[in-house]
């Protein structure tokens, strides 16, 4: 253990002397948290909508007002002389609603009065949201005006249980913790290892009495300490900037975060053992770590939406489980009863990564 501690202290001293690594360790995570927290928006708002009113009655104007007061649509005027459909072709608006003549008279007489809605289907998800919003707004308008052809016997009372204010930051920011705390510790550890290979100082390790296990433990311990400092930084941003609060078990989150940081550092070291240059190590970490963490972890969309065979790969992505733990800690609050498997999985992943890294490094020591 003494030699592991010495190796850890040596790594920390080298890290502190490298200003670029310090900036990478703390500047980029802080910037990433702000970018993810403010730039990632899953709820569609401010959708440009053009309405052509061919009836111009009080009822039709009331319907238009209802469309624009649902906090999703913003009015856009059709350019003079252009047909309404050309607004979609030019990208001026994403939806067009055409109210037919005699709209009010037919509704008052109990007759159907079809309203045409043209939606830009370039973005399928966006088009689905616009369609559902127009349908829901129309049904609400008919109900308020007393024009519904029937009265439903069931009136569901819907309540948002964990996030009644519908704050997107409660979903986005805890998920961003999983991305930031994976990529930067892994990247720092990979760069440190690749630098040893690139500069030839790794040969001193091979010539010393330090074993592969002691070398790995010492290097990983150093960058886990750096990762803990990064964790405190991103948590501070989450609490102060995005007003997060702990809803679950803080002890479980602390344990899960520590295991996650160990996994991240072991992954970066394992990748860098076989890398000849720092550029190669960075590319390998980015492709093998960041891409799956972003696309296969449930950060942007539910894992159940991922298609075969990548849904099987998602089951082995550590970021998926850590993001679930993070969101439980800051939003749901189930604690150990719902998230006990996360530290178990992260421990198994860490043991596997350590075994692979030790085997690869041990082979290099023998060949050296």
State the gist of this model.
With 368 residues, the chain is mostly helical.
How would you explain this protein's 3D organization?
With 368 residues, the protein is mainly alpha-helical. It folds into 2 domains: 2-40 and 166-367, no CATH class; 47-144, 3-Layer(aba) Sandwich (abc type-2 transporter like fold), CATH 3.40.1710.10. Helices cover 65% and strands 5% of the residues. It has 15 helices and 4 strands. The chain has helices at 2-17, 19-39, 58-68, 84-89, 103-108, 124-144, 169-199, 202-207, 212-240, 250-273, 278-295, 310-314, 318-332, 336-339, 341-367; strands at 47-53, 73-75, 95-99, 116-119. It has a 4-stranded mixed sheet with strand order 2-1-3-4. Strand 1 (47-53), helix 3 and strand 2 form a beta-alpha-beta unit. Helix 2 (19-39) packs across helix 9.
Question: Which labels suit this protein?
Answer:
abc type-2 transporter like fold; 4-stranded mixed β-sheet; 15 helices
Quote the beta fraction.
Answer: 5-15%
Percent in helix: 55-70%
**Approximate shape:** elongated
Major beta sheet summary: 4 strands, mixed
Judged by helices, strands and strand pairing, the structural class is mainly alpha
Query: Topology as H/E string?
Result: HHEHEHEHEHHHHHHHHHH
């Amino acid at each position: 253990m003494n030699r592991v501690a010495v190796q850890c202290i040596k790594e920390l001293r080298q890290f502190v002397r490298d200003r670029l690594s310090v900036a990478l360790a703390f500047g980029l995570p802080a910037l990433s948290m702000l970018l993810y927290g403010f730039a990632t928006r899953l709820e569609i708002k401010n959708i440009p909508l053009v309405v052509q009113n061919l009836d111009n009655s009080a009822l039709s104007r009331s319907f238009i007002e209802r469309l624009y007061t649902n906090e999703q649509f913003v009015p856009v005027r059709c350019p003079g002389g252009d047909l309404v459909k050309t607004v979609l072709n030019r990208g001026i608006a994403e939806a067009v609603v055409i109210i037919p003549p005699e709209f009010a008279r037919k509704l008052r007489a109990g007759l159907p009065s079809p309203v045409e809605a043209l939606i830009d289907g370039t973005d399928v998800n966006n088009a689905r949201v616009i369609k559902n919003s127009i349908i829901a707004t129309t049904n609400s308008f008919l109900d308020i005006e007393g024009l519904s052809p029937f009265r439903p016997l069931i009136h569901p009372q819907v309540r948002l249980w964990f996030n009644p204010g519908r704050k997107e930051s409660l979903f986005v920011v805890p998920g961003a913790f999983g991305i930031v705390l994976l990529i930067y510790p892994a990247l720092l550890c990979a760069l440190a290892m690749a630098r040893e290979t690139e500069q030839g100082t790794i040969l001193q390790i091979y010539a010393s009495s330090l074993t592969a296990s002691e070398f790995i433990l010492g290097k990983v311990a150093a960058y886990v300490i750096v990762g803990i400092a990064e964790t405190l930084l991103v948590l501070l941003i989450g609490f102060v900037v995005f007003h997060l609060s702990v809803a679950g078990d803080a002890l479980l989150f602390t344990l899960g975060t520590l295991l996650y940081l160990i996994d991240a550092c072991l992954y970066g070291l394992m990748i860098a053992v076989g890398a000849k240059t720092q550029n190669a190590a960075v590319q390998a970490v980015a492709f093998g770590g960041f891409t799956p963490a972003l696309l296969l972890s449930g950060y942007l969309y539910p894992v159940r939406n991922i298609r075969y065979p990548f849904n099987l790969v998602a089951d082995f992505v550590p970021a998926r489980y850590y993001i679930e733990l993070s969101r439980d800690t800051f939003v749901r609050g189930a604690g150990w009863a719902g998230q006990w498997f996360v530290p178990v999985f992260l421990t198994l992943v860490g043991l596997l990564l350590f075994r692979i890294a030790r085997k690869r490094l041990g082979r290099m020591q023998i060949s050296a």
